[in-house]
């Protein structure tokens, strides 16, 4: 039903799904215009002592920008329903960003973990839907 809680959830999940799929494809190297998140490779101030950012952090920002361009473009009216749909689209994209998980791998002789490399990754989509 249009304008219902169910419709709001559908808009949010659709927006999250598009952002998630694009971000996942970027980190797998399936889209030539994007790749790993460049911010996490260079921001040493974000890395706690004893570890560094590495691997391929998912570029959720790229996925969110494309999802916004693609889905929000349909809402051209400035009426209450369009504004509500835009809000729900944004909520879905925000759920993707807030659900990113930090994964780490230890490196060192005999499992000493003298160096730990960490990166941001996407959880299962179910986790995002539950949020």
TrEMBL record:
Q: Cellular location of this protein?
A: Secreted, Extracellular space, Extracellular matrix
Which SMART domains did the record assign?
Answer: WNT1
**Similarity comment: family membership:** Belongs to the Wnt family.
What does this protein do, in the record's words?
Ligand for members of the frizzled family of seven transmembrane receptors.
| Name this protein carries in UniProt | Protein Wnt
Q: Give any single GO term for biological process.
A: positive regulation of JNK cascade
Which keywords does the record carry?
A: Developmental protein, Disulfide bond, Extracellular matrix, Glycoprotein, Lipoprotein, Secreted, Wnt signaling pathway
An annotated Gene Ontology molecular function: frizzled binding
> Is Ion transport there in the keyword field?
no
Cellular component annotations (GO), alphabetically ordered: extracellular space
InterPro entries documented for this protein = Wnt (IPR005817), Wnt_CS (IPR018161)
Where does this protein chiefly localize?
A: secreted
Q: Which Pfam families match?
A: wnt
């Amino acid at each position: 039903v249009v304008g219902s809680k169910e419709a709001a959830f559908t808009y949010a999940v659709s927006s999250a799904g598009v952002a998630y799929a694009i971000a996942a494809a970027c980190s797998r190297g399936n889209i030539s215009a994007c790749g790993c998140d460049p911010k996490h490779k260079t921001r040493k101030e974000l890395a706690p002592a004893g570890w560094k950012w590495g691997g391929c952090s998912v570029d959720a920002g790229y996925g969110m920008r494309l999802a916004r361009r693609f889905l929000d473009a349909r809402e051209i009216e400035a009426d209450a329903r369009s504004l509500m749909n835009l809000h729900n689209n944004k909520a879905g994209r925000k759920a993707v960003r807030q659900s990113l998980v930090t994964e780490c791998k230890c490196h060192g002789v005999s499992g000493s973990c003298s160096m730990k490399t960490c990166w941001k990754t996407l959880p299962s989509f179910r986790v995002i839907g539950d949020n």
